[in-house]
């Protein structure tokens, strides 16, 4: 630890002074999210030693098998946020409907989260993460579905906690993107990456599940072929945990993609969820100088029609995202 280490709560308190609407409850809310993150981090680090790996035996609203750690992480968030009086309601990847905290009559925020992203990597000790997105309620003390179904551009804060070689929290309140690393001996997140910006890298990375090649449309296939057939081809990196793949793109630059696919030919769609996966990461990308698109429009400008809406996602270094969007829409490389 060096003398410059700033503790996360102090950093947030300082940032809060710049928001006219923040009254202290915002700092408390972020502190609660941090606490949930620490609890999940502790459990993730014990995985393998305690009976926490494997499936619960039930499916979530997405029709996916729920892992025990998915459940644990969801409950950690629910337990903590349901006691925070500034939170009017929460929505999660693991819950069909939002949970409204009707007793919180002075609530000012609602929170959406993917409690444990990258579920398929849980049992094999590969980095996973938690993603969160915060909106201010349209009407204080009254949380309804309309509070959740809003464009990403209305988020007041967004972030993720990455459970990797170290546990990191990366977040933005619209004033830069900052990263904190958990010092487990202290139990505190300390500022380690201030003012992150996505570089225009000389070593260019693309990140995509190429096993889906046959399910993409012609233009998407051509674009991926194009990346590989340049004089100096892009390098491929794919972990299969969105938080981890995005984090690499944030630090090193690059493009992460989960395009529209035709696995169901009658209903082509993206895989990733707009509200608690794409939107928060898009807010971070934008505040770090990058960008995010669904191939047609800016992710942050999509007006959602349902809570668990899925969208194609192109995110990372702005010039790479622009080039990808232009290419798949038939424009020039
Ligand atoms: P999850 O939230 O159920 O874990 O699903 C989202 C994950 C992302 O982390 C990752 O980018 C993607 O799904 C991987 O999908 P695939 O296995 O199709 O490549
Ligand atoms: Mg997820």
Poorly predicted ranges: none
Assign the CATH class of the largest domain: Alpha Beta
Instruction: Assign the structural class, choosing from mainly alpha, mainly beta, alpha/beta, alpha+beta, or little secondary structure.
Output: alpha+beta
Dominant shape: globular
- Number of strand elements: 17
How would a textbook summarize the main sheet? 8 strands, mixed
SSE pattern, N- to C-terminal: HHEEHEEEEHEEEEEHEHEEHEEEH
Number of helices: 8
Task: Compute the CA-based radius of gyration.
Answer: 19 Å
Straight-line N-to-C gap: 46 Å
User: If strands are numbered along the chain, what order do they take across the biggest sheet?
Assistant: 4-3-5-6-7-8-9-10
Any idea of the CATH topology of the largest domain? Fructose-1,6-Bisphosphatase, Chain A, domain 1
Oligomer: single chain
Provide the CATH architecture of the largest domain: 2-Layer Sandwich
User: Overall pLDDT, averaged?
Assistant: 90
| Fourth-level CATH superfamily of the largest domain | Fructose-1,6-Bisphosphatase, subunit A, domain 1
Strand proportion: 15-25%
Number of domains: 2
Bound molecules: 2,5-anhydro-1,6-di-O-phosphono-D-mannitol, magnesium ion
Roughly how much helix do the residues carry, as a percent range?
25-40%
């Amino acid at each position: 630890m060096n003398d410059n280490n700033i503790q996360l709560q102090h950093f947030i308190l300082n940032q809060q002074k710049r928001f006219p609407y923040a009254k202290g409850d915002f700092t408390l809310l972020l502190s609660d999210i941090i606490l949930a993150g620490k609890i999940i981090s502790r459990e993730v680090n014990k995985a393998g030693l305690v009976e926490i790996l494997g499936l619960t035996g039930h499916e979530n609203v997405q029709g996916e098998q729920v892992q025990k750690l998915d459940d644990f992480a969801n409950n950690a968030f629910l337990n903590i946020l349901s006691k925070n009086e500034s939170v009017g309601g929460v929505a999660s990847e693991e819950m069909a409907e939002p949970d409204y905290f009707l007793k919180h009559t002075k609530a000012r925020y609602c929170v959406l989260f993917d409690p444990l992203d990258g579920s398929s990597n849980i049992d094999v000790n590969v980095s996973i993460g938690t993603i969160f997105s915060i909106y201010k309620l349209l009407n204080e003390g009254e949380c309804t579905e309309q509070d959740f179904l809003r464009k990403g551009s209305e988020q007041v804060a967004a972030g993720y906690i990455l459970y990797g070689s170290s546990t990191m929290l990366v977040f933005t309140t619209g004033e830069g993107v900052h990263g904190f690393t958990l010092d487990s001996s202290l139990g505190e997140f300390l500022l380690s990456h201030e003012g992150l910006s996505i570089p225009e890298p000389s070593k260019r990375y693309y990140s995509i599940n190429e096993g889906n090649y046959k399910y993409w449309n012609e233009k998407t296939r051509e674009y991926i072929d194009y990346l590989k057939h340049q004089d100096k081809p892009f390098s491929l990196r794919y972990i299969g945990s969105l938080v981890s793949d995005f984090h690499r793109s944030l630090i090193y630059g690059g493009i992460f993609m989960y395009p529209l696919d035709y696995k169901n030919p009658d209903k082509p769609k993206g895989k990733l969820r707009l509200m608690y996966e794409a939107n928060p990461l898009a807010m971070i990308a934008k505040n770090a100088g990058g960008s995010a698109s669904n191939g047609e429009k800016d992710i942050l400008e999509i007006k959602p029609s349902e809570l668990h809406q899925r969208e194609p996602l192109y995110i990372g270094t702005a010039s790479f995202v622009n080039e990808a969007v232009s290419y798949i829409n038939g424009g020039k490389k």
